[in-house]
TrEMBL record:
InterPro entries given in the database record: WD40/YVTN_repeat-like_dom_sf, WD40_repeat_dom_sf, WD40_rpt
Superkingdom of the organism of origin: Eukaryota
Annotated stretches, region: Disordered: 257-288
PROSITE patterns from the UniProt entry: WD_REPEATS_2 (PS50082), WD_REPEATS_REGION (PS50294)
Protein name as it appears in the record: WD repeat-containing protein 53
């Protein structure tokens, strides 16, 4: 399965041994794993290439020359993994996996004015979102092949990450290098909840050893639709100060609605709109655990966290996996925290630590029992680990 002796200049790793996938000629930037075809992996690099690997084979399947510029993000079309989207600079290209040998895109979208950082497709495969360096998010209508909406004037800096909320079909959540996490109604093109992570900090115990970088949002992850019966409706945030935040955004949503509904109108009356929470629901919210902070004191990262993902192997969503500039990947067993009847100790969350010797650019998981964690770091080699 794994190579046991590989000549490398990297610092020796701890944790499981990696299988190494070779084919890139530049630093790897992103990766995705098929759920419909277990073992099929695509990864991108700074030379504008996408490499396709089948874990059942030793050799590279295909190399696609997509662009002369670095590729920033990849995603499958939800529900139809024959279609893959690739972003480079300000463009999103669309490919059919059955036509990879020709390298010719089916379509391309050029709506972003600044460099795209992440693209993602919603659960119904009707919209594609592209977040860029200008702080804008373009919502593209896939079926009509046109720009549906531009979300702007909320992020004050680079918008680094975007995710659709599968349980709220007209909403997305974005994160940026202004340390803000923003929930949007993209049908109306406006935000309805802004969290400033640089100012809004939960009570926490000692954070001795935590890095002092700003709480920039480098990446976010939300549960996929088929995980929602096992997980809370949460958002996981990879932060520049080394923290992995796990936030119950439904509680945040209710708090925003509650605050909005209680704003006084002229004449001293208040808004109701049927959304004022009952005393019972207010008490439930007060008793509910709404935010988990996985930081240095929990065995977490000592430098900026660059990426986060939910595990799709075994019990889907059981683990949160994060990678960082401290050259480490952390596997977190987090799910008991939001269960009110569970007693949690901060030392119990870290399930596995993998020291890579390289800064982590991106990671993803596969639905297989072995070789189920794929890591792109600042080398030309894609690493694949088995997480039990």
């Amino acid at each position: 399965m794994a190579e046991t002796s590989v000549k490398t200049n990297e610092t020796p790793t701890t944790g499981p041994t990696a299988r190494r996938l070779r084919g890139h000629k530049a630093i790897t930037t992103s990766c995705i794993a098929s759920r419909d075809r277990p073992g099929l992996i695509a990864s991108s690099d700074e030379d504008g290439c996408v490499c396709w690997f089948d874990m059942r084979c030793k050799d590279l399947l295909y190399t696609m020359d997509v662009s002369q510029n670095p590729i920033s993000s990849l995603c499958f079309k939800t529900g139809n993994e024959d279609i893959v989207y690739v972003s480079s600079e300000t463009e999103v290209k669309v490919f059919d996996v059955h036509m990879l040998a020709s390298w010719k895109p089916l379509d391309s979208f050029n709506y972003n004015k600044d460099e795209i950082n992440q693209i993602t497709c919603n659960s119904k495969s009707s919209f594609l979102a592209a977040a860029d360096d200008g702080g804008d998010i373009k919502i593209i209508d896939i079926s009509q092949k046109c720009l549906y909406k531009t979300l702007r004037a909320a992020h004050e800096s680079i918008c680094s990450s975007v995710q659709f909320l599968p349980w709220r079909p007209w909403e997305v959540i974005t994160g940026g290098l202004d340390s803000k996490l923003i929930m949007w109604d993209f049908s109306k093109g406006r935000p309805f909840k802004v969290m400033d992570l640089g100012k809004s900090e939960p009570d926490s115990s000692s954070s001795a050893g935590q890095c002092f970088n700003p709480a920039f949002v480098h990446a976010i992850a939300v549960p996929e639709a088929d995980m929602l019966d096992k997980t809370d409706k949460i958002c996981v945030v990879a932060r520049g100060d080394g923290v992995v935040d796990v936030i119950n955004i439904e509680s945040e949503f209710r708090a925003a609605k509650s605050k909005g509904s209680s704003n006084p109108r002229k004449g001293g009356q208040s808004k109701s709109n049927g959304s004022v929470p009952s005393p019972k629901s207010e008490k439930e919210d007060q008793n509910q655990r709404t935010r988990l902070r996985l930081d240095y004191s929990s065995g977490g990262h000592t430098a900026a966290v660059s990426c986060v993902a939910f595990s799709v192997f075994g019990e889907k969503g059981r683990y949160i996996i994060s990678g960082g500039n401290d050259k480490a990947v952390k596997v977190w067993n987090w799910s008991s925290f939001f269960k009110a009847d569970q007693t949690c100790n901060k030392d119990d969350f870290l399930h596995l630590n993998i020291n890579l010797g390289r800064k982590v650019n991106w990671l993803c998981t596969t639905p297989t029992d072995s070789e189920n964690l794929v890591v792109c770091d600042t080398s030309k080699v894609v690493k694949v680990y088995t997480v039990a």
